């Protein structure tokens, strides 16, 4: 299980594992407010990403949260909020 804050680096790594290295645009600080669809990630890639985040970080994210987080920045915020609630260090 990972610990600490969920970062753009974590999201990039997990998205690439879930969707494939060649799918979607690369994430960095300049793309945090860009819609996942504009970056080339569909809802299935986001759901698989959420599943991987849950396993790695030991938290639970519901599908609504995953689908309402339409940008990488919003997903990072949602994951960090859940980490804070769960008390995961």
UniProtKB/TrEMBL annotation:
- Which InterPro entries would you find in this protein's record? ACP-like_sf (IPR036736), PKS_PP-bd (IPR020806), PP-bd_ACP (IPR009081)
What SMART domains would the database entry show?
A: PKS_PP
Stretches assigned to the Carrier domain: 5-83
Any GO molecular function: phosphopantetheine binding
Q: Name one GO biological process term.
A: antibiotic biosynthetic process
Is Transmembrane helix one of the keywords?
no
Out of the domains of life, which is the source? Answer: Bacteria
Write out the entry's keywords from A to Z.
Phosphopantetheine, Phosphoprotein
**What Pfam families does its record include?**
PP-binding
Protein name, as recorded: Acyl carrier protein
Source species taxonomy = Bacteria, Bacillati, Actinomycetota, Actinomycetes, Kitasatosporales
């Amino acid at each position: 299980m990972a610990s600490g804050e969920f970062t753009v680096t974590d999201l990039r790594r997990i998205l690439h594992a879930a969707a494939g290295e060649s799918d979607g645009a690369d994430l960095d600080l300049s793309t945090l407010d860009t819609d996942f669809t504009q970056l080339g990630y569909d809802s299935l890639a986001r759901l698989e990403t959420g599943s991987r985040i849950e396993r790695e970080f030991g938290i639970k994210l519901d599908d609504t949260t995953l689908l309402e987080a339409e940008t990488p920045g919003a997903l990072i915020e949602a994951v960090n909020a859940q980490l804070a609630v769960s008390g995961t260090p």
